[in-house]
């Protein structure tokens, strides 16, 4: 049994001549607003307002950026600037010792390291055999406090954003 698979599902149907209904609505709305402005304001002001308005209508109707309609691109841009922004970064890594004495202390032998190694070997052995390892109760992490941080943009403008640390 053969089935026909629909093709070209991402293209819109041409309803009004060479235009889809979406394109037609954008152009008609822009032309309608321009017509109302023609009868209600001075001619020189009508020209100044109609050129960007008709350009926006044509842009919404015909321009695609990376295969996405300009309306979605414009909506995403407006929502980016309208909604609050959250900047996320990794906490700083602990600093490694830089002096030779500190390196010797960190690499040297200690009883604590010996016991830690033995505990790790025992836990690994129980994992290989399939026995459950005794796990110490971990302290419950305290809920993150909501903190805000000031930061400067490249333009010199200062802005406040909520800080989120993931641990």
Word description of this protein:
The protein is of the alpha+beta class and 167 residues long. It has two domains: 14-83, no CATH class; 90-134 and 146-167, no CATH class. Helix content is 48%, strand content 16%. The protein is built from five helices and seven strands; from the N terminus they run E-E-H-H-E-E-H-E-H-H-E-E. The strands form three sheets. Strands 5-7-6 form a three-stranded mixed β-sheet, with no helix packed on it. Strand 6 and strand 7 form a beta hairpin. Helix 1 (21-40) runs antiparallel to helix 2. The longest helix is centred in the first third of the chain and has 20 residues, at 21-40. The radius of gyration is 32 Å and the shape is elongated. It starts with 13 loop residues before the first strand and ends with a strand. The model has no long low-confidence stretch (mean pLDDT 78).
- The multimeric state of the shown protein is single chain
Helix content: 40-55%
User: What number of domains?
Assistant: 2
Beta fraction of the residues?
15-25%
- Which parts are unreliable, with pLDDT below 50 for 5 consecutive residues or more? none
- Biggest β-sheet description: 3 strands, mixed
Amino- and carboxy-terminal Cα gap = 55 Å
Q: How would you classify the helix and strand content by structural class?
A: alpha+beta
How many strand elements?
A: 7
Q: Overall mean pLDDT score?
A: 78
Rounded to the nearest angstrom, the radius of gyration is 32 Å
How do the strands line up in the largest sheet? 5-7-6
Based on Cα principal axes, name the global outline. Answer: elongated
Helix-strand sequence: EEHHEEHEHHEE
Q: Can you count the helices? A: 5
